[in-house]
Design a protein that fits this description.
Blueprint: E1 2-6, H1 54-60, E2 66-72, H2 79-89, H3 127-138, E3 143-153, E4 163-172, E5 176-177, E6 181-194, E7 197-211, H4 233-240, E8 245-249, E9 255-256, E10 271-275, E11 279-288, E12 305-312, E13 317-323, E14 335-344, E15 347-354
């Protein structure tokens, strides 16, 4: 059996094919033009007098060379990792529990990964693999995005299996132009063995690219408009009046935010609203550094900026921006209070301002 997964990013052609798979990034076979042709001839691609891409010729020579050899999984296939995976994925299949349990097939790559410390037994990336990426780095193709992966399963993996693997550079595409920029798709193929028996194949494709030059328009970026429907119209009506309304189930009195058509606690469909008092604390938070999205930054400049999960005094939580304090001063447990921010003439949003002394 085989499975295919997609990761966000520019789509890529299958090895050996010029046509891209359907997708937003739509690499074009000619790879020679885009809306931003200015400076395109200076893409750090070595072209000879005949227009031949000499960098691609050098990259193409790495096809078939090893990317990793005699790799060993850091752990035997084991029940705790299977359980953690299933809990994270919400997979309750009985095939992955009990004395006859097998590992979910999609864990194939997980058993080969080196973790934060990498593979310390000399089975990491090969010299050829590093050389190929050094060529790309030297030519200015320093950005990377994973585009997709494909897996083929040959036998189930069971607790106690010892995983070994070999990885080969399967293909390098000709230079392609995508919405992200211009670059090369690199596909590696990892052949996985369990106790010496073929267990599966994992293909992993990335795009190494030079980001496209983007010009800032004269009009400031606007936030996407919220989708307002019958299930949440009351919430946005409250925001327009500078009120943060929380739904309350009439059957069990459970509060809920964001708004939903029914109660998750009892299934009741009848509800009314409670106005939030406006006090809360930062339950968790992240700082948005990259990519820059001026429309989502409270100051409209693109960041960095803080995004927090705020726990209201009523017990429900809401995701919003934290304002009134530098992004790097936001802390878990920080007291905040409700405010409203007009991001443009047509949109106002609930945000949370750090309380004095917080």
């Amino acid at each position: 059996m085989a499975a295919e997964g997609r990761r966000p990013g520019a789509d890529a052609p299958r090895p050996g094919a010029d046509a891209p798979r359907p997708g937003a990034d739509a690499p074009r076979p000619d790879a020679g033009t885009s809306e931003n042709d200015a400076g395109r001839d200076e893409l750090h691609t070595q072209l000879n007098d005949a227009g031949r891409d000499e960098l691609y010729d050098r990259l193409h020579a790495y096809e078939g060379r090893p990317a990793a050899t005699a790799g060993q999984g850091k752990d035997l296939v084991n029940e705790p990792m299977i359980r953690h995976w299933c809990e994270a994925m919400g997979d309750t299949s009985p095939a992955y529990r009990g004395p006859d349990a097998v590992a979910p097939p999609t864990m194939l790559q997980a058993w080969t990964m080196g973790g934060l410390s990498g593979h310390t037994d000399g089975t990491g990336r090969s010299a050829a693999y590093d050389e190929m990426f050094a060529l790309l780095d030297g030519a200015g193709y320093t950005s990377v995005v994973a585009t997709d992966c494909e897996q083929e399963y040959l036998r189930p993996l069971r607790p106690g299996d010892r995983i070994t693997f070999d990885t080969v550079i399967e293909s390098v595409s000709p230079r392609k132009t995508t919405k992200l920029g211009t670059g090369y798709f690199v596909t590696t193929r990892t052949n996985v063995q369990a106790d010496g028996e073929p267990a599966g194949t994992h293909r992993f494709r990335i795009l190494r690219y030079r980001p496209a030059q983007r010009t800032r328009g004269s009009e400031p970026a606007r936030r996407p408009r919220p989708v307002i429907n019958r299930d949440n119209a009351g919430f946005w009506a409250g925001v327009a009046e500078h009120r943060l309304l929380i739904q309350r189930c009439l059957d069990c009195a459970t509060l809920r935010l964001p708004w939903l058509p029914g109660c998750n606690a009892c299934g009741g469909a009848e509800w009314d609203t409670v106005e939030a008092g406006g006090e809360g604390t930062v339950f968790s938070h992240v700082v948005m550094h990259h990519p820059s999205f001026p429309a989502f930054a409270p100051d409209g400049e693109g960041g960095p900026y803080a995004v927090a999960l705020v726990e209201l005094a009523e017990g429900v939580r809401i995701v919003s921006n934290v304002i009134g304090v530098p992004y790097d001063k936001v802390r878990v447990g920080m007291p905040v209070h409700l405010d409203f921010l007009r991001t443009d003439p047509d949109l106002e949003l609930p945000v949370f301002r750090a309380s004095e002394g917080g």
